[in-house]
Amino acid sequence: MRIVLLGPPGAGKGTQAKVISDKLGVPAISTGDIFRANVSGQTELGLQVKTYLDAGNLVPDEITVAMVKDRLAQPDAETGFLLDGFPRSIPQAEQLRDSLADLGHKLDRVVELVVEEDELVRRLSGRRMIVDGKETQRDDDKPETVRHRLNVYREQTAPVAGFYEGEGLLSRIDAIGSVEEVTARAMNALGADDDGDAGQSAAV
Ligand code: AMP
Questions:
Q1: Residue 127: pLDDT band by 50, 70, 90 thresholds?
Q2: Is 121 within a domain?
Q3: pTM of the prediction?
């Protein structure tokens, strides 16, 4: 299955991407994770993108799209993938559609995690990660950057849901609830049972 998981920062995309991709047996591909790994590894790509990540701005399309194309060309993504954090703009969505078409593929479904904005601000400001055994906050989870990321989402990424709605691919699901509840809604939208077996047709 070829899937895109959409949703604002703080909606739980990363968590759901891991659980759902495990159930479906496809790789979860997170552009944010790939960028962060490159920033901490101080690679050339990391140095190129660090200022964008720190400011909560989108990395330019030519960098992001090239990186995703490379990743989708890896053998493990040949029969399916779950994209988390990409596409984040209409041009990215169009370029994804065109590069999949070149390979004779297309997306099967797009699942949007829906959470209202006040709840996102609460979640992001309280979000912590463990790095080297220490609790830490992502630089871009600082309150002033959180507001900016939500604006970027509203202006550049939210229209992507409309793009996929027009293509008949979009399922919107309520992303408030336990991880298990949200996963069950997503699996239902994907037309797979909770063990990952495809079966009944997708609920839209
Ligand atoms: P995320 O982990 O998905 O919240 O992404 C963290 C940051 O990585 C974003 O704020 C952007 O700076 C960058 N990023 C991730 N995915 C994309 C994308 N598809 N296009 C442009 N920038 C991205």
A1: confident
A2: no
A3: 0.89
- Pocket of ligand 1 from Cβ distances under 6 Å: 9, 31-32, 35, 52-53, 56-59, 64, 85-88, 92, 140, 149
Q: How far apart are CA 71 and CA 164, in angstroms?
A: 22
- Reported as a single tens digit per residue, the pLDDT across 40-62 is 999 999 999 999 999 999 999 99
In a domain, 74, yes or no: yes
Q: Is residue 195 part of a domain?
A: no
127 noted as active-site residue: yes
Query: Out of 2, 50, 71, 88, which one is annotated catalytic?
Result: 88
Q: What is the mean pLDDT of residues 159-180?
A: 96
Provide the CATH number for the domain around residue 105. Answer: 3.40.50.300
Domain holding 86, by residue range, is 2-116+157-189
**Domain total for the chain?**
1
Distance (Å, whole) CA 82 – CA 70: 15
Assess whether pLDDT exceeds 80 at residue 139. no
List the catalytic residue out of 106, 127, 128, 154: 127
* Nearest-CA residue for atom 12 of ligand 1: 53
Q: Is 75 inside a domain boundary?
A: yes
Q: How far is CA 160 from CA 52, 91, 189, in A?
A: 20, 9, 18
